[in-house]
Design brief:
Elements: E1 2-4, H1 10-24, E2 27-32, E3 47-50, E4 54-58, H2 64-74, E5 80-84, E6 108-112, E7 115-120, E8 123-128, H3 132-140, E9 155-156, H4 160-175, E10 181-191, H5 196-206, E11 211-217, E12 220-226, E13 229-234, E14 237-241, E15 243-248, H6 253-265, H7 267-285, E16 294-303, E17 307-317, H8 324-331, E18 339-340, H9 342-352, E19 363-367, E20 373-376, E21 381-385, E22 390-399, H10 405-425
Antiparallel strand pairs: 1-8, 2-3, 2-11, 3-7, 4-6, 5-6, 5-19, 7-8, 9-10, 10-18, 10-22, 11-12, 12-21, 13-14, 13-20, 14-17, 15-17, 16-17, 19-20, 21-22
Helix pairs in contact: 5-10
Amino acid sequence: MKVVPISLSTAEFIAKALPLLNNYYDQVVYLNPNQYPDYPNKPFRHLLAFGAVSAMYVFNDTRVFDSWKHIRNAHSTDWLFIYIAYDAKNSVEKLSNSQEPGIDFNAASFFIPEHVWEITSEGIILHKGNASVLISEIETNHKTEEVEHSPITLHALTSKETYLESVVFIQSQLEKGNAYEINYCIPFKGSGVIDPVKTYLKLNKLSPMPFSAYFKYSDQHIICASPERFIKKENNKLFSQPIKGTSKRGENAEDDFELLNQLRHSEKEKSENNMIVDLVRNDLSRTAADGSVKVSELRGIYTFPNVHQMISTITSELHSDYDIIDAIKYAFPMGSMTGAPKINAMELIDGLEPVSRGPFSGSIGYMDPDNNVDFNVLIRSIFFNSSTQTILMEAGSAITCYADPKEEYEECMLKIAPLKKIIEGN
């Protein structure tokens, strides 16, 4: 593999590269670990892929994983970059959506890239493609075509009153034993024009995360500041790292430590996390070698720029009867975004949320030539369709019997605030 040194800092290079590649190519993906070297089991690899040798999108949400296997079989030893919507749940279980979509997005998008670059401290590793000339063009480029932003106001599709009533209803269902926990979300929608690359760079500066991503597939753009991993495979070992438990940051060091301590000892947050750990253990066990499912870290506390989070790590060894696509299918969608038990939770979500989630709480990731994978959870994300000029984003929280409806609403507002600031600030 060729390594091309660059004269710019990584941030400067990406700020020049993304606008240029976005203008040149219909398929672009950028996975950004944002210098989180101590994240358990490492954050995303620092990858930039663009152009398409082959590309396929799936609109039928019941055919996502079959289509994925089809394209993988056709390109079994190549790089593959993937987006899957939450609605791919309908490919896993006998489920459907009763609501209209919040935004016009594919159920899944796949592309075999022309070029794959990995950004390192030594320079850019050219995993695929010969793009040394393009690297030089990026470094010397002083012009970037920016899209003029239109004024945008985001509207919550669920009012505070409806949200509070729905939480009370969810808790009545929990008391009846119809579920143990439900992840209930508020969608926000707006119309207008944004520059998706500029918006990504702003969001990443405001909220740098270990599973940050920019994904373009034709007119569909995902601008993501995710702190959460869905699933990773290294050799034959799988890792899943659900986040359940959130606290805001303090205004000073003393307040910040107190809030972190409150999160660490909160019975409500610990209960939420424990339930999702059990759910993920069950999901991984469907494709795991006997006795291989382990909890390697329970309720670890990690700090990010805007929040503290409670993260657990569950591991397994893949059974020889299954491949990694099977493992992802049977763990999808991620339990941290549904609740437990999963099917009951998803049915309740479908009846309560005003639009189908579409890309929100789906996933972006990659398969390398050795079938190692890494996928995030599409939260803290902005979804933009440049053809319809529609913007969608969502925020949610886990509802348990312990939950205070007003506090859960405030948690949703805390999570959505950086995204609203970026869009409405435009």
